[in-house]
Specification:
Blueprint lengths: L1 E5 L1 H10 L2 E8 L2 E12 L4 E7 L2 H8 L2 E11 L2 E13 L6 H14 L4 H10 L7 E17 L7
Antiparallel strand pairs: 1-7, 2-3, 2-5, 3-4, 4-7, 5-6, 6-7
Length: 155
């Protein structure tokens, strides 16, 4: 197996296909990584995401420098991984009302998975932190690696 870098165009193609990644943030020299669904918007070079207020949102509000790691794994010897570095931008009302609606539309194209957990959480806890937070990551850099099989090698 060889591990080779892939170009920006290949990285962006992966971001169009895959909709779940791991969001990394940090605060006070402590990293925090969580799985998250996203929608990549190539023409704006950004990602749209959704969450409720919790540790990741609180940390990103304090330190907006974030990364997102995305994989496409066929086997231990056949995978592609992309890392996006960027800046957290919260799509707050009323300034970002139109963009917030676009984010909702893009995220809903893949699924409305988030509506049921949000409703369940609202039933369990009567708390303002249950309100949805739509945000984007403005991409500052993107890189990727791919594992490829050498001839006569298996895994």
């Amino acid at each position: 197996m060889r591990i080779i870098p892939i170009g920006e165009a290949e990285c962006k193609e992966l971001l169009k296909r895959v909709t779940v990644g791991r969001l990394g943030s940090s605060l006070n020299n402590q990293p925090y990584v969580v799985p998250i669904c996203f929608s990549f918007i190539p023409e704006k070079n950004c990602l749209y995401l959704f969450s409720t207020v919790g540790q990741k949102i609180k940390w990103m509000r304090e330190n907006p420098k974030v990364c997102l790691e995305v994989d496409e794994i066929a086997s231990r010897a056949n995978w592609t991984s992309v890392v996006v570095n960027g800046t957290y931008i919260e799509l707050r009302e009323p300034k970002f009302s139109a963009e917030r609606q676009k984010a909702l539309q893009h995220l809903s194209e893949y699924s409305n998975w988030w509506r049921t957990p949000l409703a369940e959480r609202r039933e369990q806890v009567s708390d303002e932190e249950i309100e949805p937070v739509f945000f984007r990551i403005d991409v500052s850099s993107i890189s990727g690696l791919q594992a490829v099989m050498k001839d006569n090698q298996g895994c």
